[in-house]
Protein backbone atom coordinates (compact mmCIF):
# COMPACT_ATOMS: atom_id res chain seq x y z
CA UNK A 1 0.00 0.00 0.00
CA UNK A 2 1.45 3.24 -0.97
CA UNK A 3 0.86 6.62 0.47
CA UNK A 4 0.57 9.79 -1.48
CA UNK A 5 3.31 12.13 -0.57
CA UNK A 6 2.17 15.69 -0.60
CA UNK A 7 4.67 18.16 -1.69
CA UNK A 8 5.86 20.58 1.06
CA UNK A 9 4.81 24.15 0.76
CA UNK A 10 7.66 26.50 0.98
CA UNK A 11 7.15 29.75 2.78
CA UNK A 12 8.37 32.59 0.81
CA UNK A 13 10.29 35.17 2.76
CA UNK A 14 9.53 38.69 1.95
CA UNK A 15 12.44 40.88 1.24
CA UNK A 16 12.28 44.64 1.32
CA UNK A 17 14.41 46.90 -0.69
CA UNK A 18 14.87 50.56 0.09
CA UNK A 19 15.72 52.79 -2.78
CA UNK A 20 16.45 56.46 -2.85
CA UNK A 21 16.41 58.21 -6.20
CA UNK A 22 17.57 61.79 -6.62
CA UNK A 23 17.57 63.85 -9.79
CA UNK A 24 19.80 66.69 -10.78
CA UNK A 25 19.00 69.67 -12.90
CA UNK A 26 20.91 68.23 -15.84
CA UNK A 27 18.55 65.26 -16.03
CA UNK A 28 20.87 62.74 -14.45
CA UNK A 29 19.60 60.57 -11.61
CA UNK A 30 21.29 58.95 -8.68
CA UNK A 31 20.04 55.89 -6.93
CA UNK A 32 20.81 54.57 -3.50
CA UNK A 33 19.81 50.95 -3.21
CA UNK A 34 19.66 49.23 0.16
CA UNK A 35 19.27 45.52 0.39
CA UNK A 36 17.03 43.70 2.85
CA UNK A 37 19.54 43.61 5.69
CA UNK A 38 20.42 47.27 5.44
CA UNK A 39 16.76 48.18 5.20
CA UNK A 40 15.99 46.30 8.42
CA UNK A 41 19.02 47.87 10.09
CA UNK A 42 17.84 51.31 9.04
CA UNK A 43 14.32 50.59 10.26
CA UNK A 44 15.52 49.33 13.62
CA UNK A 45 17.82 52.31 13.97
CA UNK A 46 14.97 54.70 13.19
CA UNK A 47 12.76 52.86 15.69
CA UNK A 48 15.45 53.10 18.40
CA UNK A 49 16.03 56.76 17.66
CA UNK A 50 12.29 57.46 17.71
CA UNK A 51 11.95 55.50 20.96
CA UNK A 52 14.85 57.43 22.45
CA UNK A 53 13.27 60.70 21.38
CA UNK A 54 9.94 59.70 22.90
CA UNK A 55 11.64 58.62 26.14
CA UNK A 56 13.58 61.87 26.21
CA UNK A 57 10.39 63.85 25.66
CA UNK A 58 8.63 61.93 28.45
CA UNK A 59 11.64 62.36 30.75
CA UNK A 60 11.82 66.04 29.92
CA UNK A 61 8.11 66.45 30.62
CA UNK A 62 8.45 64.64 33.94
CA UNK A 63 11.54 66.68 34.84
CA UNK A 64 9.84 69.95 33.90
CA UNK A 65 6.76 68.98 35.92
CA UNK A 66 8.97 68.07 38.88
CA UNK A 67 10.88 71.34 38.57
CA UNK A 68 7.61 73.25 38.40
CA UNK A 69 6.35 71.46 41.52
CA UNK A 70 9.64 72.22 43.26
CA UNK A 71 9.45 75.84 42.16
CA UNK A 72 5.88 76.05 43.42
CA UNK A 73 6.87 74.57 46.78
CA UNK A 74 9.85 76.89 47.01
CA UNK A 75 7.66 79.86 46.14
CA UNK A 76 5.20 78.81 48.87
CA UNK A 77 8.05 78.37 51.35
CA UNK A 78 9.50 81.75 50.39
CA UNK A 79 6.08 83.35 50.83
CA UNK A 80 5.66 81.63 54.20
CA UNK A 81 9.15 82.68 55.32
CA UNK A 82 8.49 86.22 54.13
CA UNK A 83 5.28 86.36 56.15
CA UNK A 84 7.06 84.87 59.19
CA UNK A 85 9.86 87.40 58.78
CA UNK A 86 7.32 90.23 58.63
CA UNK A 87 5.60 88.85 61.72
CA UNK A 88 8.91 88.52 63.55
CA UNK A 89 9.87 92.04 62.53
CA UNK A 90 6.55 93.32 63.91
CA UNK A 91 7.06 91.32 67.12
CA UNK A 92 10.60 92.66 67.37
CA UNK A 93 9.37 96.24 66.99
CA UNK A 94 6.72 95.58 69.64
CA UNK A 95 9.28 94.06 72.01
CA UNK A 96 11.67 96.94 71.35
CA UNK A 97 8.91 99.39 72.21
CA UNK A 98 8.07 97.44 75.36
CA UNK A 99 11.76 97.33 76.32
CA UNK A 100 12.05 101.09 75.83
CA UNK A 101 8.89 101.67 77.86
CA UNK A 102 10.12 99.31 80.59
CA UNK A 103 13.53 100.99 80.60
CA UNK A 104 11.87 104.40 80.88
CA UNK A 105 9.63 103.13 83.69
CA UNK A 106 12.65 101.67 85.54
CA UNK A 107 14.61 104.90 85.11
CA UNK A 108 11.60 106.87 86.35
CA UNK A 109 11.25 104.50 89.30
CA UNK A 110 14.94 104.86 90.11
CA UNK A 111 14.68 108.64 89.86
CA UNK A 112 11.60 108.63 92.11
CA UNK A 113 13.35 106.35 94.59
CA UNK A 114 16.41 108.55 94.54
CA UNK A 115 14.26 111.63 95.07
CA UNK A 116 12.37 109.84 97.84
CA UNK A 117 15.64 108.77 99.44
CA UNK A 118 16.96 112.31 99.23
CA UNK A 119 13.72 113.66 100.65
CA UNK A 120 13.79 111.03 103.41
CA UNK A 121 17.40 111.88 104.17
CA UNK A 122 16.55 115.58 104.23
CA UNK A 123 13.61 114.93 106.56
CA UNK A 124 15.82 112.78 108.79
CA UNK A 125 18.38 115.55 109.23
CA UNK A 126 17.60 117.27 112.56
CA UNK A 127 17.51 120.73 111.03
CA UNK A 128 13.99 121.67 112.09
CA UNK A 129 13.08 124.08 114.88
CA UNK A 130 12.32 121.93 117.97
CA UNK A 131 9.32 124.03 119.04
CA UNK A 132 6.02 124.98 117.48
CA UNK A 133 5.45 128.70 117.63
CA UNK A 134 8.01 131.27 118.72
CA UNK A 135 10.48 131.08 121.58
CA UNK A 136 13.51 132.87 122.92
CA UNK A 137 16.82 131.10 122.50
CA UNK A 138 20.06 131.18 124.46
CA UNK A 139 23.31 129.33 123.72
CA UNK A 140 24.86 127.53 126.66
CA UNK A 141 27.06 124.64 127.69
CA UNK A 142 26.03 121.67 129.77
CA UNK A 143 28.70 120.60 132.22
CA UNK A 144 28.02 116.91 132.65
CA UNK A 145 29.87 116.87 135.97
CA UNK A 146 27.57 119.41 137.60
CA UNK A 147 23.89 120.24 137.77
CA UNK A 148 24.29 123.71 136.26
CA UNK A 149 24.10 125.02 132.72
CA UNK A 150 26.32 127.97 131.92
CA UNK A 151 25.05 130.55 129.47
CA UNK A 152 27.51 131.42 126.70
CA UNK A 153 28.35 135.08 126.34
CA UNK A 154 30.96 136.90 124.37
CA UNK A 155 33.16 136.93 127.48
CA UNK A 156 33.12 133.19 128.24
CA UNK A 157 32.70 131.53 124.79
CA UNK A 158 36.43 130.88 124.37
CA UNK A 159 36.94 129.48 127.88
CA UNK A 160 33.68 127.50 128.14
CA UNK A 161 33.93 123.73 128.52
CA UNK A 162 31.20 121.10 128.30
CA UNK A 163 28.57 120.03 125.76
CA UNK A 164 26.81 122.69 123.61
CA UNK A 165 23.13 123.11 124.43
CA UNK A 166 20.54 125.59 123.25
CA UNK A 167 18.12 126.83 125.89
CA UNK A 168 14.63 127.75 124.71
CA UNK A 169 11.92 129.53 126.63
CA UNK A 170 8.63 128.69 124.99
CA UNK A 171 5.15 130.10 125.46
CA UNK A 172 2.52 128.08 127.27
CA UNK A 173 0.41 126.07 124.82
CA UNK A 174 3.23 125.49 122.32
CA UNK A 175 4.79 122.08 121.75
CA UNK A 176 8.23 120.52 121.77
CA UNK A 177 8.46 118.76 118.39
CA UNK A 178 10.90 116.44 116.64
CA UNK A 179 13.44 118.29 114.53
CA UNK A 180 13.62 115.39 112.04
CA UNK A 181 12.30 111.91 111.32
CA UNK A 182 13.83 109.00 113.21
CA UNK A 183 13.39 106.44 115.97
CA UNK A 184 13.02 107.22 119.66
CA UNK A 185 16.28 105.99 121.15
CA UNK A 186 15.49 106.51 124.83
CA UNK A 187 13.00 108.13 127.23
CA UNK A 188 14.62 108.74 130.61
CA UNK A 189 14.54 111.09 133.58
CA UNK A 190 16.87 114.06 133.71
CA UNK A 191 18.31 115.54 136.90
CA UNK A 192 18.36 119.09 135.53
CA UNK A 193 15.11 119.23 133.54
CA UNK A 194 12.99 116.34 134.69
CA UNK A 195 12.78 114.20 131.50
CA UNK A 196 14.98 113.57 128.47
CA UNK A 197 14.04 112.13 125.07
CA UNK A 198 16.70 111.07 122.55
CA UNK A 199 15.88 110.47 118.86
CA UNK A 200 18.16 108.62 116.43
CA UNK A 201 17.94 110.21 112.97
CA UNK A 202 20.46 107.95 111.24
CA UNK A 203 23.69 109.05 109.56
CA UNK A 204 25.19 109.45 113.03
CA UNK A 205 22.78 112.22 114.18
CA UNK A 206 20.95 112.13 117.54
CA UNK A 207 18.76 114.92 118.89
CA UNK A 208 18.16 115.32 122.64
CA UNK A 209 15.16 117.11 124.19
CA UNK A 210 15.20 117.99 127.88
CA UNK A 211 11.96 119.23 129.41
CA UNK A 212 9.97 118.96 132.63
CA UNK A 213 6.78 117.88 130.84
CA UNK A 214 5.43 114.38 130.36
CA UNK A 215 6.87 112.64 127.27
CA UNK A 216 4.29 111.74 124.62
CA UNK A 217 6.57 109.23 122.85
CA UNK A 218 7.87 105.82 123.84
CA UNK A 219 11.23 104.17 123.33
CA UNK A 220 11.57 102.36 119.99
CA UNK A 221 8.69 104.13 118.25
CA UNK A 222 9.11 105.76 114.85
CA UNK A 223 8.64 109.49 114.73
CA UNK A 224 8.14 111.99 111.93
CA UNK A 225 9.47 115.47 111.67
CA UNK A 226 7.13 117.79 113.61
CA UNK A 227 5.62 115.08 115.87
CA UNK A 228 4.91 116.32 119.39
CA UNK A 229 7.30 115.17 122.11
CA UNK A 230 6.20 117.42 125.01
CA UNK A 231 3.26 119.78 125.44
CA UNK A 232 4.48 123.04 126.97
CA UNK A 233 2.50 124.05 130.03
CA UNK A 234 2.87 126.55 132.83
CA UNK A 235 5.67 124.67 134.58
CA UNK A 236 7.73 123.32 131.64
CA UNK A 237 8.40 126.31 129.42
CA UNK A 238 12.17 125.63 129.34
CA UNK A 239 13.65 123.28 126.78
CA UNK A 240 17.26 122.16 126.61
CA UNK A 241 18.06 121.05 123.07
CA UNK A 242 21.25 119.22 122.06
CA UNK A 243 22.62 117.45 119.01
CA UNK A 244 25.17 114.69 118.61
CA UNK A 245 27.00 113.67 115.47
CA UNK A 246 28.92 110.39 115.47
CA UNK A 247 28.86 110.28 119.26
CA UNK A 248 30.12 113.85 119.77
CA UNK A 249 28.08 116.88 120.76
CA UNK A 250 27.84 119.64 118.17
CA UNK A 251 26.44 123.15 118.33
CA UNK A 252 22.70 122.87 117.47
CA UNK A 253 22.70 126.38 116.02
CA UNK A 254 24.81 125.06 113.13
CA UNK A 255 21.85 122.93 111.94
CA UNK A 256 18.72 124.61 113.24
CA UNK A 257 16.68 126.31 110.51
CA UNK A 258 15.21 129.43 112.06
CA UNK A 259 12.45 131.24 110.17
CA UNK A 260 11.50 134.73 111.27
Task: Please provide a written account of the structure.
The protein is rod-shaped. The termini are far apart. 15% of the residues are buried. It has one helix at 36-124, and strands at residues 18-23, 29-34, 135-142, 149-151, 163-170, 175-177, 182-190, 194-202, 205-211, 222-223, 228-231, 238-245, 248-250. The chain is built from one helix and 13 strands; from the N terminus they run ββαβββββββββββ. Mean pLDDT is 84; it is low at 153-160. With 260 residues, the chain is α+β, with helices and mostly antiparallel strands. Strands 3, 4, 5, 7, 8, 9, 10, 12 and 13 form a nine-stranded antiparallel sheet that branches. A two-stranded antiparallel ribbon has the order 1-2. It has a two-stranded antiparallel sheet with strand order 6-11. β12 and β13 (248-250) form a beta hairpin.
Could you give a quick summary of the protein structure above?
Helix content is 34%, strand content 29%.
Structural class from helices and strands? Answer: alpha+beta
Largest sheet: 9 strands, antiparallel
What is the CA-atom radius of gyration, in angstroms?
A: 59 Å
Helix content: 25-40%
Elements, N to C (H/E): EEHEEEEEEEEEEE
Task: Give the helix tally.
Answer: 1
Write the layout of secondary structure elements.
Elements: E1 18-23, E2 29-34, H1 36-124, E3 135-142, E4 149-151, E5 163-170, E6 175-177, E7 182-190, E8 194-202, E9 205-211, E10 222-223, E11 228-231, E12 238-245, E13 248-250
Antiparallel strand pairs: 1-2, 3-4, 3-5, 5-12, 6-11, 7-8, 7-10, 8-9, 9-12, 12-13
Amino acid sequence: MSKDIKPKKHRHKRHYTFMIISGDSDGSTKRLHLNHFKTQLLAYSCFVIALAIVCYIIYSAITISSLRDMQSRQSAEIQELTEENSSLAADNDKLQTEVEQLSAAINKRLEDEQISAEEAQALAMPTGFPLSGTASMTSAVDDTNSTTITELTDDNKDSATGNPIVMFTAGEGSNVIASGTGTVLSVTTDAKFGNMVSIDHGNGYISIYRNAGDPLVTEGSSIDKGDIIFVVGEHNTSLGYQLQQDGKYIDPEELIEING
